[in-house]
Design a protein that fits this description.
elongated, 3-stranded antiparallel β-sheet, 3 helices, 181 residues, Outer Surface Protein A, domain 3, single chain, alpha+beta
Length: 181
């Protein structure tokens, strides 16, 4: 039995969870509203202050969807109550990020600045060389952060580029086995 799927999802104060026909789950909270269609085989019950996800059988596909469905519901509840943030770091001489209205302008070694427009529900904040990507949808926050990192991923010789906070980049020796300075 799925250890993750068995656990109930606690509903935080100020959050409303409703399940419609076709396993459409809607979660409303202080930060906004999220809606998602969960796999039809899973049964979602809202009882008291928790959401229970159950599966109809013990087949491998139902076991896989069980834990996934519970985690998706939990991320929705956490998103509308607390929100999610991913932090990126810009490293390199002359590399910088700045806000231009709502959009993010990156100067990362190209002949032109790269402008990243935030999708609906995503906000950018800059603290020195760090970029904070925030929103209520965990999947969307992660995807936008990955797209920003993809503009200039960290390179292995000097370590320049955009990386996640705390990401370690394996360094290579370079020409003639020279130690990186």
């Amino acid at each position: 039995m799925s250890r993750v799927g068995k656990q109930p999802v606690p509903i935080v104060e100020g959050v409303q969870v409703t399940v419609d026909d076709g396993n459409v789950i809607t979660v409303k909270g202080p930060k906004g509203q999220l809606q998602r269609v969960l796999p039809g085989a899973m049964r979602i019950n809202v009882e008291d202050d928790q959401v229970l996800v159950t599966r109809p059988s013990d087949t491998s596909s139902h076991r896989a969807l069980h834990g996934l469905s519970r985690t998706l519901v939990n991320n929705m509840v956490l998103g509308v109550s607390e929100g999610f943030t991913k932090t990126l770091e810009v490293q390199g001489v002359g590399y910088r990020a700045q806000l231009q209205g709502q959009s993010l302008q990156l100067a990362v070694g190209f002949s032109h600045p790269v402008i990243v427009e935030p999708p609906e529900g995503i906000t950018f904040a800059i603290e020195g060389p760090r970029i904070n990507v925030s929103g209520i949808d965990k999947e969307q926050v992660g995807q936008v952060a990955a797209d920003i990192r993809k503009v200039r991923p960290p390179e292995p010789y000097k370590g320049k580029g955009i990386r996640y906070l705390g990401e370690r980049v394996r360094r290579k020796a370079g020409k003639a086995g020279k130690v990186g300075v």
